[in-house]
Specification:
Strand 2 and strand 3 (about 75-80) form a beta hairpin. The protein folds into 4 domains: about 1-180, no CATH class; about 190-355, no CATH class; about 365-595, no CATH class; about 605-695, no CATH class. Helix 17 (about 470-495) packs across helix 18 (about 500-515). The N and C termini lie far apart (about 75 Å). It is an alpha/beta fold and about 700 residues long.
Length: about 700
């Protein structure tokens, strides 16, 4: 009974999340996409997927809800979603499941063979079908996922084939998602029966030991074909606890691995360092001639050697290399369940040495996220709807925290009260955080990479500000960015562009951030818990320019892929936009701008040096630049204002901020290019060179 009640609560929570997301987007028809995105998000965090895009399409005999590529781009994942919106969850019958998977298979097959040519080019489904067609020669396997908020009685389907390549079917219903999200684990455990891969592996074992931890280490030799077959079945799930994703063949180490596999596979064992793996349990079998062999491995994870594993798989599938002579040495450490989450990451950290590993790669429990979680549990947001009731924004550092906190309230009345204080639409995750920050920091092309890849980029940027711990000011301004982003989602959705809403939102807000030199008053948004009507009008107007640019990529490129390129951001950034004239009255002045945080960024050594060089520009010179620009209508209005403010700073011997320094250097270069020469600066040419090139 308790399990049934918990599943029902989970179903209601999922339904509310989907409705809330659809309401934010302003289009009821998007509920199925929102449900698909929720499954993608949860399964990506669980390591079942490498992210993906939701995009519903149905035609005669065909259906798809989205797609994604594995990190190594050798596997295509395609999704279909059956939404019921029924609580308690309804049963989805075998016939409906089979029909949906059949339509999904048909769509995948048609897309491989050029179905995009029959579709409207300015639609997301065109991008999905075109991308699948473009990559058709790269795929070694296909994975077809069925998502549903109902309950499916089937466990699995037999593997099949699409276009002569293996295809597997994966059913994720509400019950399975519930187990994944609430089990306290980060993934479904992998159980490898080696009888499925050629038989047991002879091994040597150590005694159990380890400074208070109980673990046993086994040494074995794994045939390359066995390792490739295991990777083919489980893919990136094997590497989830690893500190980095497979880097493909761009690094020197990976290129060397590939070269050996293709040209000298018989000596691979001698040249390669092998792999390190962990497990929670192994089954052993005694060999007839004496000794032991591993017959099964539970909860297998490759913590070092992910590149080796994926390279062998890639050489076999993509390069058609003969790997029959390849052998790999392996160290398998069996760790108790209780130590998996803490001990395994340490093994991963210390075992990885083939490629440089940044500390940013070990960010799951970074103090930044821990501190942010504490702030979210203690800071009340202002009542923004005219009422006196205050609420909190809930930062979900670990998956499931929101639902767990709700479930800990023991009575329906207390649960209702908790919901009122922590509305579902004020919950955000690590990937949401990265989306808010990277958008406002004018990196929409990174946001367009997808939630997980964008989060990794954010983590790298965060690492540059070593030891940064957020405070209350940072929290307020972060939430303001989230409010702005979510309001923009609704406004853009109401414009009826027909697709690419996520890209349009990111590029629109990034363009506004750039056009205003980040002088939007985030504290004002926090106080009112909503953007001003003027700023909302600005979002709508700028979004029209953005939509026109991103949906007309050069050379007929795929729109989704175009949005991931910095070239696209350059095109949007340089496009003229019209801001409402009255908006200037709401923007921060240069003097107030210095008090508004620059997100996670801080000055790096090069920027510190630039700030020092800009001290050589006198206050009088800045005033002359400002007057000249106003008289000639050169530079943007905010640049003229910034130049005047920098003049005041120079007179007061106050240095510019990091962001101001970058903009100030651009003002100097642009003014010089346009022919400006100050009357009070005899060494102007040298000064420009010094500021522009670094000087000495």
């Amino acid at each position: 009974m308790a399990d049934t009640e918990e599943l029902t609560r989970f179903a209601e929570d999922l339904r509310q999340q989907v409705w809330s997301a659809a309401e934010l987007e302003g289009e009821e028809a998007l509920r199925l996409d929102c449900l698909t995105r929720q499954f993608i998000s949860d399964l990506t965090e669980a390591g079942e997927l490498d992210d993906g895009d939701a995009c519903y399409h149905r035609a005669t005999g065909m259906e798809a809800s989205g797609y994604g590529l594995s990190t190594d781009e050798l596997t295509l994942n395609v999704f279909a979603t059956i939404g019921t919106e029924v609580v308690p969850p309804a049963t989805v019958g075998r016939r409906e499941v089979e029909a949906c998977l059949r339509r999904l298979t048909n769509f995948t097959t048609r897309a491989l063979h050029g179905y995009h040519a029959e579709l409207e080019e300015a639609s997301p489904v065109f991008d999905m079908a075109q991308r699948i067609h473009e990559m058709r020669g790269e795929f070694a396997a296909f994975r077809l996922f069925l998502f549903t908020d109902g309950v499916v009685t089937l466990d699995r389907f037999p593997e099949g084939a699409i276009d002569g390549r293996p295809a597997s079917f994966h059913l994720w219903d509400l019950r399975r998602l519930f187990r994944c999200v609430t089990s306290g684990q980060h993934r479904e455990p992998i159980r490898v029966e080696l009888s499925d891969f050629g038989g047991p592996l002879p091994c040597l074992a150590t005694a159990e030991s380890g400074d208070g931890r109980r673990y046993t280490t086994y040494l074995t030799i794994v045939p390359g074909s066995v390792l490739a077959d295991i990777y083919a079945r489980y893919g990136p799930r094997l590497l989830e606890l690893n500190v980095r994703s497979f880097l493909q063949t761009r690094g020197k180490v990976n290129r060397a691995i590939r070269k050996t596999l293709v040209e000298d596979s018989g000596d691979f064992l001698a040249y390669n360092n092998g792999i390190s793996a962990t497990a929670s349990h192994v089954d052993l079998t005694e060999l007839p001639a004496g000794g032991w062999a591993i017959s099964a491995i539970s909860d297998l994870q490759i913590v070092n050697g992910g590149q080796t594993t994926a390279s062998i798989y890639q050489a076999q599938r993509r390069d058609r290399a003969d790997i029959s002579k390849v052998a790999v040495q392996a160290k398998l450490t069996v760790v108790s369940d209780g130590d998996l989450s803490t001990f395994v990451p340490l093994i991963s950290r210390y075992a990885n040495s083939q490629n440089k590993v940044n500390e940013a790669d070990f960010s799951a429990n970074d103090p930044f996220h821990v501190a942010l979680e504490k702030l979210s549990r203690s800071i009340w947001s202002p009542a923004g709807d005219g009422s006196q009731r205050q609420t909190r924004w809930f930062y979900e550092r670990a998956r499931g925290q929101y639902q767990d906190s709700f479930a800990r309230e023991v009575t329906p009345a207390r649960q209702r009260q908790w919901r009122e204080l922590h509305p579902a639409n004020q919950r955000f995750t690590k990937t949401d955080l990265a989306k808010f920050e990277n958008t406002w920091d004018q990196l929409p092309h990174l946001v367009s990479l997808g939630a997980e890849k964008n989060f990794r980029e954010f983590t790298v940027r965060l690492a540059r500000r070593a030891g940064f711990v957020p405070d209350e000011v940072y929290w307020r301004q972060l939430v303001a960015k989230g409010i702005l982003f979510r309001r923009a989602e609704r406004l853009v959705g109401q414009e009826g562009y027909g697709g690419y809403r996520a890209n349009i939102v990111a590029y629109t807000l990034a363009r506004i951030s750039h056009a205003t030199a980040k002088r939007v008053d985030l504290e004002e948004i926090w106080q009112h818990q909503t953007p001003s009507p003027l700023l909302e009008r600005c979002i709508v107007e700028v979004s029209r320019t953005v939509h026109s640019i991103i949906t007309n990529p050069p050379g007929g490129r795929n729109v989704t892929e175009w949005c991931k390129r910095e070239e696209c951001w350059t095109r949007v950034r340089e496009a003229p936009v019209s801001l409402p004239p009255d908006l200037a009255s709401e923007l921060l002045t240069v003097e107030r701008r210095i008090d508004q945080r620059d997100g996670i960024e801080t000055a790096n050594p090069a920027e510190v040096a630039l700030i020092d060089r800009l001290r050589l520009v006198s206050g009088q010179t800045w005033f002359e630049i400002s007057r000249w620009a106003a008289q000639t209508q050169n530079l943007a209005g905010w640049q003229r204002q910034l130049a005047f403010g920098l003049g005041r700073f120079a007179k007061q011997e106050r240095p510019p901020t990091r962001k101001q320094a970058v903009q100030a250097a651009e003002i100097v270069r642009e003014a010089h290019r346009l022919g400006f020469r100050p009357t009070s600066e005899p060494t102007w040419e040298q000064l420009v060179a010094h500021v522009s090139e670094g000087g000495s």
